[in-house]
Amino acid sequence: MSGSSSFFTSSLGRKYVMGITGIFLITFLIVHAGINALIFIDNTGALFNSAAHFMATNWVIRSMELVLFLGIILHIVQAVILTRQNKQARPQEYAYANANANSLWYSRSMGLLGTLILIFLIIHLGHFWVKARFGIPEGIPEGMNGEHDMFFEMKEVFSNLWVVVVYVLAMVSLAYHLLHGFQSSFQSLGLNHHKYTPAIKKIGIWYSIVISVVFALMPLYVYFFLKN
Amino acid sequence: MSGNMNLTLKVWRQKNGNDKGQLVNYPVKDVSPDMSFLEMFDVLNEELVQKGDEPIAFDHDCREGICGACSMFIDGRPHGPKEGITTCQLHMRSFKDGDTIVVEPWRAKAFPVVKDLVVDRSAFDRIMASGGFVSVNTGNAQDANNILVSKVDADQAFEAAACIGCGACVATCKNASAMLFVSAKVSQLALLPQGQPERMARVENMVAQMDKEGFGNCTNTGACEVECPKGISLENIARMNRDYLSASLT
């Protein structure tokens, strides 16, 4: 009726964008965690390296990489706009608000958790993606098959205890962000039904824990068991 | 009387919309546990008037939990520590002797403070008005049995219509969002056959007005559902989101 421009600038339209990009990023994490988990199956890293090579060279995946960056940027931009509007909606705070009586702390801290994840993401892209794509500050060494030896690089990065600590703490932030974000994205898309919502909430809890634990185990496993 | 309490109230006093306002301490003595929270304010106000002070302005009307006027943010929660009630239904037995109770007005840009604990909630009225009218056939009233409504839909519409527009959802939401209120008002008609002709226009106009009034956005914390004195469900917000998408696509 009113056209799409007002939809995307409306409060509900922006929430749709948050929900859709959120679910898209949730599916991305499954792929990422799945490939990471290959190091637990084959600790020579050959399987992991060939998966990483496929992800870096397949044109479908490369195209999706652009969509992924677009999704992340949209998610962040909308979050910033929504947060600013939310702050403006209450210019004067309460002297005393007992928010814990009616909501969970992490559901109220999505902006903070998201910011921590963004800081981690920048560090993480610097560790692997920027090196692999652009060779900055130096490229990834080549393995036996002439592919990038991402497995070797990973062992290098995770030989530093502080890096491991930062990665594990970031995964704690991710877990809480997902705990609220998973079920919240369905609600924002209008997908709330007494038959399915309890299942969505349960899957969301399992998803958030499993994904974050798989991610966090990788640097820990490498640091303690797989040094170069 | 035995069992009566001595309390300290910290009440927000603000002369008018331009005044900065501040919390002021009021000791209240010999409070009966059987009093309602508003009755305690009546007693305190009588004392203030007798002393020649300005009584505390607060909204109230029916005093039986159906009008939604009594907007007080008590000890960090709208309508106080109990769930499923308004301030007039809150009794002093919910507190204990020696307690300090903080009482503030609803805080939202869209609900400007008029005086003390009174806020202007006419933003809600404008959202309701933007929803427009419901088409009905003129002429003889038709047989009610001609319009079939399932029991499930009738119940859900009724539950949504139980919203009294008190504004507790806005008051408690960390974003001062009015989604629960607006979604209840959208749902009460969207679920019934009589609401279908204007269903899409209604949701679009009401959401547009809600955004224009300067309410915040929904982050699905669920605080509104917990604090709603009438137990309005978050399912209404999801329904509003669905309807809004359909309305935008058609």
UniProtKB/TrEMBL annotation, chain A:
The keyword Metal-binding is assigned to this record? no
- Which key words are in the record? Membrane, Transmembrane, Transmembrane helix
- Species: Solitalea koreensis
Recorded GO CC terms: membrane
The cross-references to NCBIfam families, in alphabetical order and at most eight, read: sdhC_b558_fam (TIGR02046)
Q: Which CDD domains match?
A: SQR_TypeB_2_TM
- The regions listed as transmembrane in this protein's record are 16-39, 59-82, 110-130, 161-182, 203-226
**Name of the featured protein:** Succinate dehydrogenase / fumarate reductase cytochrome b subunit
Q: Which SUPFAM superfamilies match?
A: Fumarate reductase respiratory complex transmembrane subunits
Q: Which InterPro entries match?
A: Cytochrome_b-558 (IPR011138), SQR/QFR_C/D (IPR034804)
TrEMBL record, chain B:
Q: Which Gene3D superfamilies match?
A: 3.10.20.30, Alpha-helical ferredoxin (1.10.1060.10)
Query: Which taxonomic lineage is given here?
Result: Bacteria, Pseudomonadati, Bacteroidota, Sphingobacteriia, Sphingobacteriales
Q: Which cofactor does it need?
A: [2Fe-2S] cluster; [3Fe-4S] cluster
For this entry, the protein name equals Succinate dehydrogenase / fumarate reductase iron-sulfur subunit
Domain (4Fe-4S ferredoxin-type) ranges: 154-184
User: What is the species listed in this Swiss-Prot or TrEMBL entry?
Assistant: Solitalea koreensis
Pfam families (UniProt xref)? Fer2_3 (PF13085), Fer4_8 (PF13183)
Q: Which GO terms describe its molecular function?
A: 2 iron, 2 sulfur cluster binding; electron transfer activity
Question: GO BP, one example?
Answer: aerobic respiration
The record's annotation in InterPro entries points to: 2Fe-2S_ferredoxin-like_sf, 2Fe2S_fd_BS, 4Fe4S_Fe-S-bd, Beta-grasp_dom_sf, Helical_ferredxn, SDH/FRD_Iron-Sulfur, Succ_DH/fum_Rdtase_N
The record ties this protein, via PANTHER family, to:
SUCCINATE DEHYDROGENASE (PTHR11921:SF41), SUCCINATE DEHYDROGENASE IRON-SULFUR PROTEIN (PTHR11921)
Per the UniProt record, which residue ranges are transmembrane? none
Top-level taxon of origin: Bacteria
Similarity remark: Belongs to the succinate dehydrogenase/fumarate reductase iron-sulfur protein family.
